[in-house]
Amino acid sequence: MSKRATGDRLRWRIRAWGLSAAFACAVAALSPALAEENAPIPNFAPDNVTGWLKGPGDEFLPPDLGPGPVRSDPAHHYVSNAVALQETVKIADVTNPILQPWVVEQMKKSNDEVLDGKVGFTARSRCWPHGVPGFLLYPVHPIFFIQAPREVLMTWGQDFQLRRVYLDVPHSADPKPSWYGESVGHYENGDTLVVDTIGLNDKTYVDNYRTPHTTRLHVVERFRLVDGGDVLEVKVHVEDPGAFTMPWNAVQRYRRDHRPAEVPLHEMVCAENNGDHFNQGLYPIPQADKPDF
Questions:
Q1: Do the beta carbons of residue 182 and residue 132 sit within 8 Å?
Q2: 118: which of 87, 109, 214, 280 lies 20 to 30 Å off by Cα?
Q3: pLDDT tens-digit readout, 170-185
Q4: Which residues in the chain belong to E strands, given as ranges?
Q5: Cis geometry, peptide bond prior to residue 133 (ω within 30 degrees of 0)
Q6: Residues 66 and 248 sit within 8 Å (Cβ to Cβ)
Q7: How far apart are CA 233 and CA 226, in angstroms?
Q8: Is the separation of the CB atoms in 270 and 127 below 8 Å?
């Protein structure tokens, strides 16, 4: 073989090795993304009809450690009608150290009004959106999940209130405040859906104790199946430097609804025949000023 032929063959081999090395590097670079795309994810609707029912009451559970959500005043202990014949009124414990002074003042006023006989406002009773994290407090009706490759939907029967979680994308630079804000999320460790929400308006309450917040509210929720998949646990992290003195955490738990044939997702229009008999003008039922069709 001539020296020229030998040199050409050697150069070809070097180029081939270079291409192979480059291909190997490209595959190595892509493999985390491919692995993430094909990674297992928690299935919140294994039979396409499974709903999740919240436990008794309509308040958050406290975390194991650290600052937690507002709870009932020990002098006026709240009892849900889910466990008692007569539900008691909700009086907030305003000594919770997470509350800023202006929040304490507003909640004291609300407490006094309820103790004087006024009906305490809840978003569900007035047909208002709950916002985030209040969406986790809906009782009675199950929550349903729809999991698509780039989006997760959560819906609840009353007024078909809907949350959209966009997967594997960053937040917008400056989202316009809205009832449910802007939620982005991702799956983690193969068993958890992490949802990060900002861009919330200040028209909702954080809970059913009428705890206010500002548009700086930032909520992170971690949805995870526990107890063999029969329980959906949500760990909630809340920050709002405009309303709270510190970040705080809460927990919510749902049980799998095994009655899909008996209790399907059905239409329930909240505002229809729901008159404002107790809070005239204070918390009117939301009404559109023009048809949406």
A1: no
A2: 214
A3: 999 999 999 999 999 9
A4: 51-54, 143-147, 151-156, 161-167, 182-188, 192-198, 218-226, 231-239, 248-257
A5: yes
A6: yes
A7: 7
A8: yes
